[in-house]
Amino acid sequence: MAKTQINVRMDDETAKMARQAAAKRRIPVNEYVEQLIRNDNGQLRPVFMAAAQEVLDEYGDLLDGIEGDPRTCASPRSSVIRAGWRQCFSSATKAAQA
After folding, report:
1. Sequence-ordered alpha helix ranges (H) in 1-98
2. 3-state SS, residue 74
3. Strand ranges in 11-95 using DSSP code E only, listed in sequence order
4. How many Å separate Cα 80 from the centre of its chain?
5. pTM of the full structure
6. Per-residue pLDDT of the chain (98 residues; tens, 9 = 90+)
7. CB neighbours of 96 closer than 8 A, spacing ≥ 6?
8. Closest CA to 22 of 35, 13, 32
């Protein structure tokens, strides 16, 4: 893939944070910024949703039995009533793929 050079101006503190974050990941600052932009543009969400769906497909029955009613995901420790695990993630996965 061809690379295009872009100059970015930022204050000293932000530049320091960018350098530290890149160093922590052992990557150049430009690669760190590129990852942030790609992640921000939603390329990470479909990957995450697909992985979450795989977990639910594999362990959904176990998750349903951990807390509350699997039809509502009502938890005795939670006042929030949600749709079932599979229903929640199936809808979210379909939306992410759209």
Report:
1. 12-25, 29-40, 44-66, 85-97
2. strand
3. none
4. 22
5. 0.44
6. 788 999 999 999 999 999 999 999 999 999 999 999 888 877 777 888 888 888 888 887 777 666 555 455 455 444 333 445 556 656 555 655 55
7. 45, 46, 49
8. 32
